[in-house]
Amino acid sequence: MRISARGVILHNKHILLIKRIKNERKYYVFPGGKPEGSESKEITCIREVKEETGLDVVPEKLIETIEESPDAKAVFLLCSLKKKLNGKLPELEVLGDEISKSTKRDFFKPVWIPFERVNSLTIYPKKVVEKLQLI
């Protein structure tokens, strides 16, 4: 079974998401991806968040595991920022190969979204957003 790791980062009443536009559909996902070699879910999460947002994070707690298909699941790890910023939102920068793949038809951009807006957006998976609202 393939297991991907995704980071859930909350900071200063905002949530870090990846804005996607694919096949003319606009939606948001959590940063993350598949392990390289025998990486643990925590190391995968740290690397993927860094590649997709430019941020260094510390995974702290597993908040959800979701079966994406019969042979794949994703773990969602609540993460904190490694660098403390006194309430400021850190700047985001794509460092991985996603930036070279981003086109008007397949758009990829990390964004900070005020947490109060999550119910008005299409965010996948919804189950993780619902769980965050209970924290």
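(the above was protein one; protein two follows)
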Amino acid sequence: MISFRTYFNLHVRKVRIIVKSKSPLMKIIAGILWLSNKLGITNIQDFMGNYATTIHDRIYWPSSDPYMDDSPRLFHELTHVLEWHYRGVKYDLEYIFSRSKRTYYETVCVQTNMLINPKLQSQAYVASCTNQFANYGIPKSMVRKELNNRLIEAVEKRPQAESSLVAAAYRDWKMNS
């Protein structure tokens, strides 16, 4: 049986997972976020240990989190890979400079987990996710509105393309493994 990541690489898009603590780029970004936290722009604590970070087709995995092949975090990050794949540099710029686009992109990743685990298609899950995005400098009202949109789309079976593709790949992998 092949891993889900291998299946994804073969059938959807090639992705590399890199241990975050071994990346000079991630150490630089950690320094920038430290300054951003001090200036009150973000409130991201322990960027190197608690957050996976995706840049293009590379997922920088936190060293404190053992890699799990079918974890919600992996599904989330694979969705970001596809968001970048479909939009390229536009995605990078929008994610960094547009709070509303960053909110949209993050909520599409949450929708992926709703599709893979339908029990998460609930207001309780929306509420728990709303709180975690406050650290990204996104107002809760904006997050809640977008998460509710993604919930409605998931329930009505009209999800965003990236969510749908990751979830379909996961279902295919499960059926064939």
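Reviewer note on protein two: DSSP finds nine helices and three strands in the chain.
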